[in-house]
Design goal:
Layout lengths: L8 H12 L1 H9 L4 H8 L4 E2 H7 L5 H13 L3 E6 L5 E6 L1 H5 L1 H18 L10 H13 L1
Helix pairs in contact: 1-2, 7-8
Length: 142
Amino acid sequence: MAAIKESSTIQENKQKAMIECPVTYVMEKIGGYWKPIILFQLMSGEKRYNEIRRGIPAITEKMLIQNLKQLEAENLIIRTALPVVPPHVVYQLSESGQRLQKVLNAMAEWVIDESQRQGIPLGKNLSDLPAVRQNWEKSVMK
């Protein structure tokens, strides 16, 4: 990645927006196409790299690695490398990442409600409204 000039006007405006707008702050942390999907995959518990990859078949290896590193740098996930041969690495949500479960479940519930309202069929993973709502309710009760 190219170095970012910290004193640029764009960076100053971005920092100001992050301070003044909580949505901007959240989007800076979990924005982009893949980060919320990766976090959603990890909500069910720790997973190995290939488990995450199988859960998101459309993601390329490069994008998965890049986004996992960014999420780890933002302290939203924890990468644990176990000292065994062959290497065994697992990813799980950090405490901050776990606190995003309510947001991610609310996004999933919105999709389900909106698709039902518009009569758009969902894939098998999203069509189980009771399970998504149950997960959402569990996260709200925490």
